[in-house]
Amino acid sequence: MRDALAAIALPTGAIVAALGVFGLIVSFAGVDPVAVWVLLFKGAFGDAFSWQNTLQRAAPLMLTALCVALPARAGLTVIGGEGALVLGGLACAALAHALPLPANAVGTVLVCAAGALAGGLWIALAGWLRQVRGINETISSLLLAYVAIGLFKHLVEGPLRDPASLNKPSTPALGDGLLIGTIAGSDVHWGLVVGTLACLLAGLWLRFTPSGFSVCVVGGNPRAAQLVGLPATRLIVLACALGGAAAGVAGAIEVAAVHTNANASLIAGYGYAGILVAFIARHQPLAIIPVAILFGGFGAAGSLLQRRLGLPDASVLLLQGIAFVLILASEALRERDWKPLLAALGRFGPSDPVPVVLGTPEAPKGEPR
Fold first, then answer.
1. Dihedral of CA 215/219/221/223: which sign?
2. Do the Cβ atoms of 61 and 281 come closer than 8 Å?
C-alpha cells in the first residue's frame, strides 16, 4: 500500500512542483503565473476543441512511451524513440510509393506494419549491441536516433522527394484510401485507439504471458534469470523490438493520419517527450495512457499561451524539461528511509528540563577542606 501511494504521490508532486517552478520563471518575464496555469488547463481541457487537440497529441506519446517502457522492464534505458518514429513514418511513405497497395483498410494496415517493422528493427539493434557487444544502450539508442534523422532527411530531400514539393521537401502523398480517418466525425484520428490498445496489450503481455513475465524477471533480477536459464539476450532484444515497433507505428500513424506524407514536420519531438511520459508512468503501460493525455494537453496549450500571453509556443518544452528533472530527482526520494529524518526533526521540539548538578567547590590551597 505504501509503495502504491509513493508511486502516485511522488510523480504527482513532481508535476505540481514543475508547474510552480514554471510559473516562477514566467513571472520574471512579467507574466502572471496564475494566468499561465489557468490557460494551460483551458488549452488542454477547457472545451471540446481543446480535448480533441489534446487527444490527438496524446496518441503518438502513448506509443513512443512504450518504446521506453518495454525495454525498461527488461532492465534497459532506451531513449531512441525519435529515431524509430521517423523511420516508421519514412517506411510507411516509402512502401506506399514503391508498391501498388489496395486502397482500403488492408493497405492502411500494410503501411502501418512497415512502420512497425522499421522501428522494431532499429531499436532491436540497440538491444543487440548491448547484449552482444557490450555497448551502453542509452548511448547507442540516442546516437542511432541521430543517424535515423539524418537518413530520413537524406531520403526525403533526395531519392524519395516529390518533385511537386518545392519549399518543403516531402515524399509523395499517400492515396486517400490509405489514410487513417477520424473517430465519429471529430478531429481525433484512430491513432488514439491504436495507442490505447497498444498500452492495454503491453500491460496484459507483461502480466499474463510467460514471455512477458520472463522479461520482467530479466529486468528485475538478472542473477535469478541466469540461474533459471532464461534466454536473456533473446528476451531483451524482443522487448526492444516491441518498443521500437510501437514507436514505428506512431510515425506511420502521423504520416497516414496527420501529414499524409513524410516531411520534416514528422520530427516534432514526440520520441523525446515519450521518455518523460514513460518515467512518470514508472514504465507501467496502463499508467502511460493518462500521463500521455496530460502531456498531450500541455503541448496543445502551447499555442494558447502564445496568443494570449505572448509566450513562445515552445515554452511548454521548458515545462516538460523541468518536469523531467524533478521526476528524476523524485526517484532518489523513493527508497529513502524517512524515520531517522523525522526523529531528528522531532529533537528540535520542546524537551524536559535537564537538572544541573553543582559540584562541591574546592578549598584554597593550604587550607583544610
1. positive
2. no
Q: How far apart are the first and last CA of the chain?
A: 69
For the question of whether the overall pTM of this predicted structure is more than 0.70, the answer is: yes
Phi-psi region of 184 (alpha: psi -120 to 50; beta: other; left: phi over 0): left
Non-local CB neighbours of 271 within 8 Å, separated by 6+ positions: 64, 67, 80, 81, 82, 83, 84, 85, 86, 145, 247
φ, ψ for residue 182, nearest 5 deg = -100, 165
Closest CA to 89 of 142, 148, 138: 148
- Is 249 in contact with 89 (CB distance < 8 Å)? no
Assign 142 to helix, strand or coil: helix
Angle at which helices 270-280 and 81-98 pack, to 10 degrees? 130
The per-residue pLDDT for range 30-88, each reduced to its tens digit, is: 888 899 899 889 888 888 888 999 999 999 999 999 999 999 999 999 999 999 999 99
